[in-house]
């Protein structure tokens, strides 16, 4: 079971996004995503998120919240993604070797090329303050089912 973290740094109505354009054979190629990556052995969700954010941006987060867990399921893989938002950081942003970092208006993210399931959890992040569990089932690149806290969601 793959475990990952994903974080959205939100300031002044904008989120720091990563446009994945630099790596070939990248499942996220040409997509816009938050900042994150795979767990290393022995890491907690918070440790993974903080390390990945620092590695990909050069920034050290100083205020964050653990917002939810997203279970991705497809015929080829299964992943638990630990989802965070952050509101403060320190340091100097640097270039990322996985893509281009850009501040995007929070309300405009849904218009970018993102995964269908990302639209679901981004909406939950906007609407909810409480921790949530979201299951997203894909067939290929098509989202076919979503469940929020064990209950089916309308797509």
Tell me the layout of helices and strands.
Elements: E1 2-11, E2 14-19, E3 32-33, E4 35-38, H1 45-57, E5 60-73, E6 78-90, E7 100-105, H2 116-127, E8 132-139, E9 142-148, E10 151-152
Parallel strand pairs: 1-6, 5-8
Antiparallel strand pairs: 1-2, 1-4, 2-3, 2-7, 5-6, 8-9, 9-10
- Gyration radius from CA atoms, angstroms: 15 Å
- Taken in chain order, the helices and strands follow as EEEEHEEEHEEE
Strand content: over 45%
Shape: globular
CATH topology: Nucleoside Triphosphate Pyrophosphohydrolase
Average of per-residue pLDDT values: 95
What is the assigned CATH homologous superfamily?
Nucleoside Triphosphate Pyrophosphohydrolase
Structural class category = alpha+beta
CATH architecture field: Alpha-Beta Complex
The low-confidence parts are none
Question: Could you say how many structural domains there are in total?
Answer: 1
- Tell me about the biggest sheet? 10 strands, mixed
First and last CA, distance: 26 Å
Could you characterize the architecture of this molecule?
The chain has 155 residues and is of the alpha+beta class. It has a single domain, classed as Alpha-Beta Complex (Nucleoside Triphosphate Pyrophosphohydrolase). The protein has helices spanning 45-57, 116-127; strands at residues 2-11, 14-19, 32-33, 35-38, 60-73, 78-90, 100-105, 132-139, 142-148, 151-152. Strands 1, 2, 3, 4, 5, 6, 7, 8, 9 and 10 form a ten-stranded mixed sheet that branches. The protein is globular. 23% of the residues are buried. The model has no long low-confidence stretch (mean pLDDT 95).
């Amino acid at each position: 079971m793959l475990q990952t973290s994903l974080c959205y740094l939100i300031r002044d109505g904008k989120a720091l996004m990563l446009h994945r354009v630099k790596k070939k054979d990248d499942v996220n190629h040409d997509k816009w995503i938050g900042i994150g990556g795979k767990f290393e052995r022995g890491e907690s969700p918070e440790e993974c998120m903080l390390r990945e954010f620092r590695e990909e941006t050069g920034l050290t987060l100083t205020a964050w919240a653990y917002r939810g867990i997203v279970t991705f399921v497809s015929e080829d893989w299964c992943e638990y993604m630990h989802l965070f938002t952050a509101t403060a950081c320190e340091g100097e942003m640097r270039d990322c070797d996985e893509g281009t970092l850009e501040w995007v208006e929070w309300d405009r993210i849904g218009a970018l090329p993102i995964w269908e399931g990302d639209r679901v959890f981004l909406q939950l992040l906007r609407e909810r303050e409480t921790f949530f569990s979201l299951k997203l089932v894909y067939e290929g690149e098509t989202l076919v089912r979503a469940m929020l806290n064990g209950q089916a969601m309308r797509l």
